[in-house]
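Handoff note, outgoing to incoming analyst
You'll be picking up this chain. Sequence as last confirmed:
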Amino acid sequence: MATYIAMIQFTQQGLETIDQSPARAEAFTAAAEKLGASVRKIFWTTGAVDGLVSIDAPDEATAAAAFLALSRDGNVKTQMLRAYDRSEFQQLLDSLS
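Most recent structure output, in case you need it:
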């Protein structure tokens, strides 16, 4: 499975109901599992982004569907990134030669 990370930004609606954020995270975890992805970690952050979500998914389409489901209710906006661990990145580098 590949790892994907989403940077999370709360919308105004999400900020108005921020106290429900932990419950929404649990609901996202269940929804992602139904799509075939698994949530690795969820972080709430300070700074340029409001949170980070790391999932494992069999392919980009599954990851995109999971993050679209997260955004669907209008509480957050997401920006998805493909993440590579050290060995995966080394494979990419090895393929360059």
